[in-house]
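User: Structure tokens for both sequences below?

Assistant:
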Amino acid sequence: EELFRELEFFRLQSQLDAFRGDDKVKIEAEVKKDYFSIKSRKELDAMISELKEAKLISLDLESTSTDPMLAEIVGFSFSVRPDEGWYVPIRFPEKIEELYGGRDDLTTILEAVGPLLEDPSHSKCGQNIKYDMVVLKRHGLSVNGVEFDTMIAAHLLRPELRSYKLDYLSEEHLRYNMQPISDLIGTGRGQKGMDEVPLEDVTFYAAEDADVCMQLTPILRKELTESSLEEFFHRVELPLLPCLVAMETDGVFVDQQLMREMSIWMENKLDGFSNEIHQHAGNEFNINSPKQLATILFDLLGLPEIRKRSTDANVMESLKNLHPLPEKILEYRKFQKLKSTYVDAIPEMIHPETGRIHSSFSQTVTATGRLSSSKPNFQNIPIRSGEGREIRKAFRPQQDGCAILSADYSQIELRIMAHHSGDEALRSAFAAKEDIHAHTASNIYEVPLEAVLPEMRRTAKIVNFGVMYGAGPFRLSQELGIPMAESKKIIDAYFNRYTGIRKFIDDTLAFARKERYVQTLLGRRRQCHDIEDSNQRVRSAAERATINMPIQGTAAEMIKLAMIAIHEILSIKQFKSKMILQIHDELLFEVPNSELDDVRELVVKEMEKALPLDVPIEVDCGVGESWYHAH
């Protein structure tokens, strides 16, 4: 059983349980389900009466798209008791007339269930309920009183799981196999929309979703309590939902014309790189073909083969000092990626009605608790290269008389390290508001602060972040381009000066080896299964992740708490300003000029006090006509 659980063999576990006659197991065929399709106003009113009396309402929508900003509602499903559920259909192929006595069924249903869903005194649960909240927000309905989300809870309990889909959670916790969606809509080219599935079929599938979510809620709630995570769940993750719903529905404006001009400029740049590459190679070839490039590099130019004729970025970096071609290849690839991944792709994501991009923010992707975004992934928009930063010029206010406000935590991970480690040298530097990288350089090179050179500071910055996350002499020598012996001296000097950091790292690893988990300041956990793996590479990676978690995870908690507070105050005071993006340690706002001073003061205040540390917290604030100019 323990092995099956560790390897996530839930179907095999079910078979094993059934084989030995475990009567607690729910064999799919033996479970009687009482799912009811609502087809009249009388049945609708009776269902709503029961929902009003329930302690907890499980809610799920069926729709036409996985994109909540484009999805049309096909039906609603509800459950308040195990193995029971209702499905309220809106669109289905056999439909001849409106079912509920109104002008159109969707409006009638929204008016009927709206007050209940908006009432915070009626508790709700769901699986990825943010999706349903965004869809309903588009229809003018704010879902309040969300008490549980099974997907978020499952991720909090086991951030290493490969999937948090409802059918997967059902197999693991209920030993119950749900009906696959492919049974209803098929797969591939012949796939149907949910609104094309016969009512009887969709009723079972939809009600089952709400039912299984209802059954999972008490199980996952108990596990959260046993893992000391329930308070965290209700303090950080659940209250963040309304904020994320607002950010997703509000979206971000992107200047299409500017993106088009940038695309043309990059195309010309790529043409220039192509010509230079072919000149250096001595003949023309397909630059995007690793095989053809390898032939040019290793056969024609005679450059040394590294890792079996690989032409990846690391190999190109190693070869760039031997011949001009590898460096040109790196430049070409950088521009090509910027153009295809961002400059050309982002305008395609603009919503046809709002003219804005509505990214999706996920709480269940990263093990540290950091938010991730998709369509597009804003966290990955490059900022180190000038060309990458240029992309940010296209992100600007949609209306005149507004500006972009950027608020960014200053060196927050180092401040959190100072708090966790209690290192006096680091704490005193922050307390004195010194330049922390110059301070580190002064300590490493044993020179006065005023004698620190820019190159020394750059090295110290890399050391501060590298060593903090467990980078050894080899990694540091690669980062700095120096011999291993020299990088080892730098690391030794660093730990001799910052003894508290050395102790924190050692204590964290010792705790992880004993308890097999590590946690953040507020108690979010990450399992450390590989911390004593026999494979040195696996073990080293686990050690780096273990040291990283308390730092990055605490930073994630801090910005989430700030977001919750800021969103709440903006709503209560009815500001027109919008929080539009969260990227790492930065928050981005679209603000009318008339509100700039008030919003700036509010944002800085709430970010600084979100999660107090033993060192001062600083927030860098900028205002400009675009994200580029504000950051």
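Moving on to the next sequence.
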Amino acid sequence: MSRARRFIRNITSGYLLLFASMLYVLASVPLALKFLTKEEFGLWALMTQITGYLALIDLGTSPSISRLLIDCKDHPDDGDYGSLIQTGGLVLICQGVIILFVGILASPLASHLLQIPSHLETSFVYLMRWQSVILAAGFVTRVFGHVLFAHQRIDYVNYVQATLSLLNLIVLWVAFLSGAGVYSVLWSSTTSCLVTAITYVVFCVKFRLLPKKGRWGVPSSGRFRELFQYGKDVFLISLGRQLTMASQTLVISRSLGLGAVAAWSVGTRIFNLLLQLISRIFDFAEPIFAEMVVRGERDSLRERFRSTTTLGASLSGVAAVLFALCNTPFVSLWTSGKIIWSVPCDVLLGIWLIILVQVGCHMGLVLASKRIKWMRYVYFAEGAIFVVLATLAGPRGGLSAIVAVSILCSLGFSYLRGLRHTVSFLGFSLREIAVDWLTPMTKIIFLLAPVALLAGWAFRPLTTFPRLLAAGLPTSAWGSFLLLRYGIPKSLKGDVVKHAPKMLLRWLGRVIGVP
């Protein structure tokens, strides 16, 4: 199967997964708010972030295994490939045991540090301990997911996760009805862990992605050192990302309380979905870029990276404007007025979305090239400085101040360093990357933002739902046209037309300007 076809399958299945995840989020939040108090919902949201921090005990092993498997997957029977799978699997199992003990022993201390209200302390400790058990169990078979990633069979992973999103919603609903309350999340997490483990093993066997009998090699200290050397750099980057992207909830919990945590969790759900939606493009291109690096296909890498980054910027520009226009009325409608959100937060989050998409593109290239170098410290420094500044700014400026600090840190650290890496590795000039590649996005925002402002002002007197439709639909249609017309790089327009459904060829060709 060609790279282009495999990428299209991966990205299509990725958007199917995102759609299923969106349905889960849209249904689970009102469902949870119906059965939980606002503080219990905040506790539920807080547990998600804590689970992310527990996963950092991975120490960068997971992305390290995925990347190094790409180096040796073309020769699966020489022993090195099997040795890497075995070594990585043993390391992951050991890390799962560590997660289990850390989660169980540290839960009372975490309750004190996060200032959990006394009447919720028992629930918090119980949730954290059981989430640690479930997370540790998932580490046992995680290596098979990395094998699928290295062989670019991410489409099947996406199909499994999409199905799980709908299954988890059913499990969550049944658990709420049975009176499980805030503990309902444990039932859905257990379901995900079991189904994921079984299906990943089945797919690896079905597609013959594992070495043949007698060609597995043996776990080796050399492979362990290689995993650790690359993994420790990825760990510092992951820790910095976690501090920058996920510590807002922890900062808000200490500074503004669980009620504000609930508001942040709901108000940023669509933001996170949009970020995933756009980042999917580069996430699924990353193993292809890594393969190009391994095989020395430099010219193809340069062209594909440029076009992918430009497309990501254009998508983020449209998404940022629509988010700033629609998110506040959507949150009000979605939660029946229980959660109060503000337009200034949406505008700031839109700006941050654009920056994060660019950071993701350039950081993905860093990981694909394995030339991490100083980036390991840049990301960690960004995360640490963010936590300090956000802790100081939160009590004074509220949620908007925390988002503003996030923007400044992402722009001043990871974005600038990512630009420098792309310049040195691919040989582009700084002007090409920071100006020319972003010109289509700038043009789209310039043409779309006035329409969004006019629609928001004209339909403001309407009630929430009519205002959301009246302002959002025409603005979305105009934004979609601008994206197709100006946001798709010339090098990708031919591929778009080539793989488009026949019934859309004539219309699509006219819109994007290709015969």
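User: Anything stand out in the second?

Assistant: The chain has 20 helices and no strands.
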